[in-house]
Amino acid sequence: MDELRDYYQDWLENRLKPTVDNFGSRQEEFSTASDIELKALYTPLDTKEIDYLDKLNFPGQQPFTRGVYPTMYRSRFWTMRQYAGFGTARETNKRYRYLLDQGQTGLSVAFDLPTQIGYDSDHDLARGEVGRVGVAIDTLADMETLFDRIPLDKVSTSMTINSPAAVLLAMYVAVAEKQGVARKKLAGTVQNDILKEYIARGTYIFPPEPSLKLVTDIFEFCSQELPRWNSISISGYHIREAGSDAVQELAFTLANGIEYVKSALKIGLKVDDFAPRLSFFFNAQMNFFEEIAKFRAARRLWAEIMRDRFQAQQDKSCMLRFHTQTAGAALTAQQPENNIIRVAYQALAAALGGTQSLHTNSFDEALGLPTEKSVKIALRTQQVLAQETGIADVIDPLGGSYLIESLTEELVARARDYLAEVEELGGMAEAIKAGFVQREIQETAYEMQRDIEEQREIVVGVNKYQEEDREIGDILKVDPELEKSQRRSLEEVRSRRDDQQVTEHIETIRAAAQQEENLMYPILEAVRDYVSVGEICGVLREEFGEYQTHHF
Amino acid sequence: MSADNIKVLIAKPGLDGHDRGAKVIARGLKEAGMEVVYTGLRQTPEQIVKAAVQEDVDVIGLSILSGAHGELFPVIMDKLTESGRNDVLVLAGGTIPDDDHQKLKDIGIREIFKPGTSIGKIVDFIRQEMDE
Amino acid sequence: MIMEISAEGVRSGDERIIARVISQVENQRQQVFPLLKELYRSTELAYLVGITGPPGSGKSTLVEKLVLSWTAEEEKVAVIAIDPSSEFSGGALLGDRIRMGKISTEKNVFIRSMATRGYLGGLNPAIFDTVVVLSAAGYQKVVIETVGVGQNEIDIVRLADTTLVVTVPEAGDEIQTFKAGLMEAGDIFVLNKADQPTASRMGLILKQMLEMNDSENHSSDNSDWEVPIVKTVGTEGEGIEELRRAVMQHRDFLSRSQKERYNRSRVIRNHVVHLMEEFLRNHYIDPLLESPVFQEILAGISARKTDPYTAVEQLLKSFNKEQGKHEN
After folding, report:
1. Chains near A, with 3+ CB pairs < 8 A?
2. Is residue C1, in this structure, part of any structural domain at all?
3. Helices in A82-164 by DSSP H: which ranges?
4. Chain B, window 70-109: residues with a beta carbon less than 8 angstroms from a chain A beta carbon
5. For residue A164, is the peptide bond before it cis, meaning its omega torsion is within 30 degrees of 0?
6. Are residues C22 and C137 in the same domain?
7. Judged by CB atoms within 8 Å, which residues 45-64 of B form the interface with A?
8. Inter-chain touch B19–A202, beta carbons under 8 Å
9. Are residues C110 and C32 in the same domain?
10. Does residue C101 sit in the same domain as residue C152?
């Protein structure tokens, strides 16, 4: 190594420097998106401190830096899972069956905003929002339509639902009952990650304490009833979309994870009972190598946290399995076709980072909802990547790269600093209440905007190689009549129900909330009798109160 | 009127929680010397118009990504007129398809800024409109 | 918009007119003075409640709950929420409306966000003038809210008849760094988030500090008023009734002890001084700063042809001559 250092110094001074002096350098300094300074060249000198078995090890072995499974994509590719949902349950059901026909291997349900915030389609605040950014679900009747002719024992389903997660999960279980599918066969994920809603995504309902209780109720229910179901998807995706950098995405996501584990332990769950069903969700942004290093650093950090801090005994409890979505914030409204290329690079980073499943964005999403055609291109992007490039044939193919390994180390170290700061503030719930996390992200978001405006960062078509704006007309339209028809069908369902029974269900839920019992069970009873999302969240609003953000 | 007296209301109608853009713009306008009132998420048309009246703002910036602009913006514009504040400069941003721009301009929304618009451009636009 | 900007318009309670007059108070001060003269003489000033405390102490939630308790009794209440202006750009982020929650749509509540606008000597005179406008418009109580515990905030809340200083358990030892002025300005201390485990410790520290402050300041405004510490949990509404009562008791104390008149005359004295400063700055100092004469004088001082002391004496003499012109 000493000899190598001498050669390296010699190269730096006698070869690199004179050349740079002659030809110049594009930039004075180079750095990643998270401001990690980059050298011109990485060598064994940068990785010599890394103990292979301790820090990397083999795939499927702690700390899982090189992958959570021994075979990775040599057994099967990542799950290609496109997030979709719009309009009514009937239309969305049609899109799902189309996507499954096209070779998609998992479903991912997007709910409309009223559903996500626990309002029925006939609520005042639902005006204009019904079926817009996802499918409108009011009662079990809608959920039955959504999964009509889709056998729930054959697909895995991810549901992006947080504050009312218990209600939608209960509906899924109830639909499976009607299809005659055993609970132990149900595979999928419920997002159920409330903390990042306060930080970044904004679809919260209740204050943090009762919300965390609901989260852990789902942990408990899943560990008892749904062995193949991921009880949470701890999401850095939205933190990144809100404007954080890679280090913040990594650190705040793991900090949220720590908070959930603490909450579950507090209600008496055993770590190895629920930890294997925790899953994660990350963003794939543009800075290619940093993104790959981020995924690897996440696996290593989580394994260390679970093993050292929470004394998890099983390997499965220490595995960070994750879904990835390409970055919505990287999509440009200008020259939208360029987004196809961006998405392809981001997808490549996710695959090289060892993701378990992947959503690729459609190129027209900065303009509106994607069309069937743009969704298909997005899916084909993944299929080309998996089937034609050969990148999936070797496990963790970039492992051992001097650059990737030293970036992974650096991200681990920087994330640890953040984790320590959050710890000092009393954990993530407190750090969020104090506005710390939000302020950190806002600051980064603003700096990023400045960097683009002052041309320190280039976005092709936006601040370089601009063209005259042209109109893109081909955008999916949601039928304005839809809101009315959804309200009508809700009214119909309501008129068919036994009012007395509905009231009893609501009072049972109220009592369970007051006595801090597991709410999943009474909610499951209620949804079977078509009590609505809005009615269930309504009684919980009365009991728990509503969260108001106080930070800016 | 000079820039340091321009008062702006940044509002998020609709239910979406994506306020990155709204906050970045608010901060940018502040640094351009404007006084910016930010209303937070999930604002109803009633809340937005009431805030605009009480704060006597010169400009309203509406940020929406949920797709409900077609439904909510006309209500906001009507209520502004009812309140006698149709003199205020109304701008919009977020995920608003090109197809809808003309309709929104027809009801009095002066400009719709697409994602990727620089703060500098928005500041210039506001100053120019205020000078007229 | 065609709107009648008049005393009657303000008194009619039309929110648009009130809002526009406040804008003039902020931006076109000269034009609005005739209206202010008329309003002031025919108006009983509203009862002013000041509230300040560090960021994150939950002031706005307390304001929200207090205001609701007053509007429940059919009172009309206005809130002036003050945020600092940026020293560099002069802009400001006025984020308080976001925190006021429910009251932002209440019928009898008027919320106005204002920036401090970096006045020399601290206090933006527009704040007091806004109180005059709101009082004339029929608001019986006006809450002035500021974020922070610096000198500027103290100056602002000292306008109030009753001043609430909010703190929280997690402020911990930070409270030791509260300016002495803040301890004196506080008529009621609020320990918010009192459900936290460290609240009782914080309560004790606060009590001690108040006692120390009391024994050092026999002559302060509050010599006969025992400053209460009210514990609240703003988010749950706990302690709001006690807080409401404490405000009422302080108000009774003020009117019993003639302190109200004393406070008011101090506030008015300060406002008169502020208006004079503003007048001098606008009419004499600012125009001078831009004049070539001033540049010459500065150059003279640099070259030691004259000195700053003589220069000021001469400038003041020329002001007096101009003042003579004004009087004609």
Report:
1. B, C
2. no
3. 89-101, 113-116, 140-146
4. 70-72, 95-99
5. no
6. yes
7. none
8. yes
9. yes
10. yes
pLDDT tens digits for range A410-444: 999 999 999 999 999 999 999 998 889 999 999 99
The position carrying tokens 């309009």 is A87
Q: Do A203 and B66 make contact, defined as CB atoms within 8 angstroms?
A: no
Q: Note whether A114 contacts B: Cβ–Cβ < 8 A.
A: yes
Domain that holds residue C157: 7-272
- Cβ of C92 and B4 within 8 Å? no
Q: Are residues C191 and C299 in the same domain?
A: no
Number of domains in chain C: 2
Interchain contact C101–A (C-beta under 8 A): yes
Residue A361 token pair: 């964005």
Choose the final residue of a domain: C229, C255, C272.
Answer: C272
Residue ranges of A 207-226 with Cβ closer than 8 A to chain C: 207
Residues C154 and C40 in one domain: yes
Strand segments (E) across B24-117: 35-38, 59-64, 89-94, 111-113
Within 13 A of A278's CA, how many CA atoms are on the CB side? 30
pLDDT, tens digit, 9 for 90 and up, residues C267-310: 899 899 989 988 888 888 888 888 898 999 999 999 999 999 99
If asked whether residues C251 and C319 sit together in one domain, one would say no
Of B5, B35, A127, nearest to C97 (Cα)? B35
Tell me, what CATH number does C17's domain have? 3.40.50.300
Residue B1 pLDDT: 39
ipTM: 0.92
Structure token digits, residue C2: 């065609």
Which residues make Cβ contacts (< 8 Å) with residue C235, sequence separation at least 6? A207, A545, C58, C61
Contact between A441 and A243 (Cβ < 8 Å): yes
Torsion angle in degrees (nearest 10) through CA of A314, A317, A320, A323: 130
Domains and CATH numbers, chain B: 3-131 (3.40.50.280)
Is C89 in CB contact (< 8 Å) with chain B? yes
A549: nearest CB among C58, C93, C98 = C98
Amino acid letter, residue B110? R
Quick: pLDDT tens for B81-123: 999 999 999 999 998 988 899 999 999 999 999 988 999 999 9
| Chains A–C, number of C-beta pairs less than 8 Å apart | 19
Mutation to test the A interface, candidates B16, B29, B112, most A Cβ within 10 Å: B16
Please indicate whether, in this complex, the C-beta atoms of C91 and B51 are within 8 angstroms of each other.
Answer: no
Q: Are C286 and C226 in a shared domain?
A: no
pLDDT tens digits for range B27-66: 999 999 999 999 889 999 999 999 999 999 999 999 999 9
- Of B12, B98, B105, which to mutate for an interface test with A (greatest number of A Cβ within 10 Å)? B98
- Examine the domain organization and report whether C291 and C242 are in the same domain: no
Least confident of A341-350, A471-480, B92-101: A471-480
- Chain C: residue whose CA lies nearest to B25: C93
Domain A83-391+410-453 architecture: Alpha-Beta Barrel (3.20)
